[in-house]
Amino acid sequence: MAKPVKIILAGEGGQGVQSIAQIIAEAANEEGREALYIPNFGVEQRGGVSVAYLQIGDEPIGAPKFLIGDIVVALSDRAVRRTKQYVGSETLFVYDTGIKNIDNDLPKNAKKVLGIPAIEVSTKELNPRVFNIIIMGAVLKASEVVAVEDARAAVENKLGYKFEKNPELREMNFGALDRGIELVASLL
Amino acid sequence: MPEKPIQGEKRVFMTGNEVVARAAVAAEAEIMYGYPITPQNEIMHYWTRMLPKYGLRFLQTEDELSAGFTTTGGVLAGRRAFTATAGPGNTLMQEPLSMAEAMRLPVVVIVQQRGGPSTATVIYSQQEVTMTTLGGNGEGLRVVYSTATHQDLYDYTIKAFNTAWKYRFPTFVLGDGYQAKMRESLTMYDPALRGIAMVPTEPYVGRAGMPGVDREPTLLRNTYNVEEELFEVLEQYIADYDKVAPEIAEYDAFATEDAELTVISHGVVSRACKEAVKELREDGYKVGYFRPITLRPLPVDQLRDVAGQAKQLLVVESANGQLDRLIKEAIYGSTAEMLSMFKPGVGITTEEVVARVKEIKDPARSDKLRVLH
Q: So what's the ipTM on this one?
């Protein structure tokens, strides 16, 4: 029995980690796979580190939370320090290279540590608003848990009403998704 | 008649709170009473969102005491009524629910447990087991279903209304903050298509005809003048409860027949225990899995069978022994060694349960046990 892929996404409140965890989970569900997504939702949700736990597999998912992630994504200095505990010898750890003063906090025990310049790319090439969609692309490439076209459909499903009003947003979001995929592909 | 909320069957992906609201609509619930408290707020949000379409009603009260009493009022009027709460709200609600026990009122209550004592956390726990199963003053004449999955939330929310109206005991669906907020898939269905008929409701008050002439008078009491009067009523209630308890009790189990150690857990924690037992079995450990689905009444006979089979029972829960106390009472006299993994107010993962069993079963300790037996 194949175990589910376990993903942790952590960032500052407002960076959109919960949204992308939910979109990926919904994409997996649409593929007929089993998915479970649970946010942390303590008081820290308002101005603290926001953590999303996501599991995708072919059998019904067990416990909603887990100790070690297959993929751990940290998007702020506090998120890097907070998520070190979820890293094991099989973990792929992804962080943003724009985060300052974390060199000593990056996990030493991970299978692989990938730094991607998502903040920089979103600011210079696209729009800071689609930063999380770049991260979503990165997670899709790193995990390969759902097909890119299904993820696109889930984004469309979630944000379609906004795209209708402003079609440029659609282009920007899907561009961000592709950039996220490229950023990880170039490192693997 | 508004259209049916669920036509046929439908696979969906949503939070547990939304599942509960949709299940209540599918169960033909007519009115919800409630007061907001995290992590169950979205039950009333989704309920109120659906109510115009299906001609349903909602009353937000000033607190949980009032929410509990108005729910009993809805039931007295013959409405399929329910409420939802958590933590300190559940505490306040025990007073009206004690009255519901006194009058045998079929109220349905959804509880999404949060950390305690007091305000503690808005997140998660299994620390409302004692309170939900045994209630306030009285004898705990109630039914409590402890759910583990979104499918359970859907199935048992529907079932709770039928259990309540069939047996006339207050009935609870005991979830938790994780189940409330997480998203996973489930199949929603029109209960009729699964052969589930909703038990008809009837008013307790305002019934047609002259009392004492056309029909028996309705006696609704939560006050008695003499001890013997109360005792007579309670004797009857307790006899009624004991009689139906075996047919209400439900459980889930596997690999217990040849198990040396059986893991007992309930609710969302049983998901971790189920995976852990499967993993441990693959590694050659003789472990079993047992999950009471009803915490009140417990599946006593099955628990005693399991306790008679395994040399060790490991009770795992996100509380400091609230399930453990219920289990010990049910299996009183068993010689099985009682072991525990208590993490009050904190989630439990598969990895942690596996580690705990391995710690118990490490070779040195196993040798010692073999000598002893």
A: 0.94
